[in-house]
Amino acid sequence: GPYRVTASKDGFQGTYTDARIALGQPADLGEFKMTAATGRPAGGGTAADVEKLNAELRKMVADAEALASAGKYDEAIAAFDALLAKGVASPAEIHFRIGQLHSEKKDWKASEAAYLKALELKPDFARAQLELANVYQISGQKEKAAELMAKAQSGGEGDASVQYSAGVVHINAGRHEEAAVAFNKAIAIDPTLAEAYFHLGTIALNQN
């Protein structure tokens, strides 16, 4: 991106949305983010005002991700909180990233709260379901973890990143057979997913 979608109708003022989408590799924190300003800014304004706002939001996302990459998790969380206060078109994804950063800090309560907020805003958010399942697994809430895992894998049946992430959660829980099934599903969807092959090889070595 960025990408622009324009909508218009006779008798109505045209509007457009600018959006930038970035997909991280499965081996990364698993980021997915989209920020956009739609139509005219609050209180009126021109198309140039919208573009200026989008540029500002994109820079805020980039700055927040740079802090996260540098391991400055508290500062990155504060930066994402500022994005939420600014107003973005996809707050669920921002709460998801905040949850991931709290997980990096091993602050499981804060991580759980962030993922729950993401799911409140976007109930079918499979990646958030998986990450929350991992939090529940770590904190000993195995029934909740299993329920969310099943829901996430069902909802993300055709999504390689979801199946890959499910495999990672299964590995962390010591469920190697279930992990292998998930990684094979991921490869069937995306045969270029090198990390999934790596994990399958590691599982095979451990079984032998």
Q: Give the number of helices.
A: 9
Low-pLDDT residue intervals, each spanning 5 or more residues:
1-40
Q: What is the CA-atom radius of gyration, in angstroms?
A: 19 Å
Strand content: 5-15%
* Spatial order of the strands forming the largest sheet: 1-2-3
Helix content bin: 55-70%
What composes the largest sheet?
A: 3 strands, antiparallel
What is the CA–CA distance across the termini? 45 Å
Task: Briefly note the structural class of the backbone.
Answer: mainly alpha
Number of strands: 3
Q: Which outline best applies?
A: globular
| H and E string | EEEHHHHHHHHH
Oligomer: single chain
Features of this protein?
mainly alpha; 3-stranded antiparallel β-sheet; disordered N terminus; 9 helices; globular; 64% helix; 3 strands; 208 residues
Write up this protein.
The chain has a three-stranded antiparallel β-sheet. It is mainly α. Helices cover 64% and strands 9% of the residues.
Annotate the secondary structure layout.
Layout: E1 3-7, E2 15-23, E3 32-35, H1 47-69, H2 73-86, H3 91-104, H4 108-121, H5 126-138, H6 142-155, H7 160-172, H8 176-189, H9 194-207
Antiparallel strand pairs: 1-2, 2-3
Helix pairs in contact: 1-2, 2-3, 3-4, 3-5, 4-5, 5-6, 5-7, 7-8, 8-9
The gist of it:
The protein has 208 residues and is mainly alpha-helical. The chain is 64% helix and 9% strand. α3 runs antiparallel to α4, α5 (126-138) runs parallel beside α7 and α7 packs antiparallel against α8 (176-189).
